[in-house]
């Protein structure tokens, strides 16, 4: 009897070992064959539509892991180090500037995602004309998005730029500021939260909705720009190999899925975004 139990125990242990070896072999095969997880670094404001795309991709055999970053510096650093496969948070001008400031970044655009309008928002005033002298205005502190904010302030006729068409203008490039606006520079994602302490804030609809600080549709003025310069990109390393077309398949789902479109309508507001890939 004892001999039978010992034999049974041996068979069970042997079975477990075989199962573990098989599992490790299968995992290693997946990794080598490119069937492993596709890891994409994202900004939290883009999470919901991307998660919808990830859920659909899983049904098609593509496993996608979304990793959220709260700032606009870490996603490119992490991608450059090879810890993620791609990121999705920046437009081409931001990427160009990041590569200029960090020559070690060997990054490139893989595909284009959503583009959105931006606006000027206030919780204190209902019109731009009501802004007082020395009003406190929140704008992004990075060169690219600050330039975008200044162009919008120029569109609002609140300032005049030395070069009215320069999308990289900074505060030093303001030629006229009749209301003597006082500018408060914050990191781009924080503009949505800084609106509470300002007279006026440059804002992104998706960040405002995420922060729940203002209705994205309540802008005193929206930009009139519908080109795709500021469309958000799927960015990869220059040496990235898209094994089994995982990222390509994911992008196709993101761009064409009715469920993703519905999620974008809910997150941005149906009239506040447009497809950057068209």
Automatic annotation (TrEMBL):
Segments crossing the lipid bilayer: 12-29
Keyword vocabulary terms for this entry: Lipoprotein, Membrane, Palmitate, Signal, Transmembrane, Transmembrane helix
Compartments where found: Membrane
Keyword check for Zinc: no
Membrane topology: Lipid-anchor
Principal subcellular localisation of the protein: membrane
A Pfam family annotated for this UniProt entry: Lipoprotein_9
Lyase as UniProt keyword: no
A cellular component annotation (GO) from this entry: membrane
PANTHER family: D-METHIONINE-BINDING LIPOPROTEIN METQ, D-METHIONINE-BINDING LIPOPROTEIN METQ-RELATED
UniProt record similarity statement: Belongs to the NlpA lipoprotein family.
Protein name, entry field: Methionine transporter
UniProt organism field: Acinetobacter qingfengensis
């Amino acid at each position: 009897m004892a001999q039978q139990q010992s034999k049974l125990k041996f068979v069970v242990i042997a079975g477990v070992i075989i199962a573990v070896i098989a599992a490790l072999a299968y995992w290693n095969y997946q990794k080598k064959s490119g069937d492993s997880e596709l890891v994409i670094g994202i900004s939290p404001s883009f999470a919901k539509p991307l998660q919808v795309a990830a859920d659909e991709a899983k049904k098609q055999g593509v496993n996608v892991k979304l990793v959220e970053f709260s700032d606009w510096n870490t996603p490119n650093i992490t991608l450059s180090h090879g810890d993620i496969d791609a990121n999705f948070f920046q437009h081409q001008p931001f990427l160009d500037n990041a590569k200029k400031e960090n020559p070690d970044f060997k990054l490139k655009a893989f595909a284009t995602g959503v583009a959105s309008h931006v606006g000027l928002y206030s919780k204190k005033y209902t019109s731009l004309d009501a802004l007082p002298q020395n009003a406190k205005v929140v704008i992004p502190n990075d060169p690219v998005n600050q330039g975008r904010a200044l162009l919008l302030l120029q569109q609002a006729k609140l300032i005049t730029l030395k070069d009215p068409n320069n999308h990289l203008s900074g505060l030093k490039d303001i030629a006229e500021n009749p209301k003597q606006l006082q500018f408060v520079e914050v990191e781009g994602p924080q503009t949505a939260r800084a609106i509470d302490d300002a007279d006026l804030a440059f804002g992104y609809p998706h960040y405002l909705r995420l922060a729940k600080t203002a209705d994205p549709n309540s802008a005193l003025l929206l930009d009139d720009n519908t080109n795709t310069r500021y469309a958000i990109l799927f960015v990869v390393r220059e040496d990235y190999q898209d094994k089994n077309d995982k990222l390509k398949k994911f992008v196709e789902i993101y761009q064409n899925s009715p469920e993703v479109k519905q999620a974008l309508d809910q997150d941005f507001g149906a009239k506040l975004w447009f497809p950057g890939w068209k």
